[in-house]
Amino acid sequence: MATVLIVDDEKEIRRPLAEFLQGRGHRIVVGHSGAEALALAGRRRFDAVLLDILMPGMDGIEALRRLKKADPSVLVIMISGATDEAAAAEALALGAFDYIRKPFDFHDLERVLATGLAMRG
Hints:
Elements: E1 3-7, H1 11-23, E2 27-31, H2 34-43, E3 48-52, H3 60-70, E4 75-80, H4 85-93, E5 98-101, H5 106-120
Parallel strand pairs: 1-2, 1-3, 3-4, 4-5
């Protein structure tokens, strides 16, 4: 069981994703912005962060940069509805474990999450 931070500005993404992962035994915390992700991560450690790229205010790329600076070992999986290969490449270069496009298959996301968690040890 992992503690997972889900950060997405769309409630329609956060809610079903949280329910799915909770149903798989994970502890879930949700945020709606990059700034909130940083505030939450500053108060507690997460096993994984699912982070949207396109959000108002601080985008996911900047949030990823700051999360990795604060904790280089944090497992971050980027999610995005946009087909932006440059953003995906930048996220991976900044240390994201993977990049998954919306709409995603929950089971594929679960597999990526499980793989990332297993690789962290």
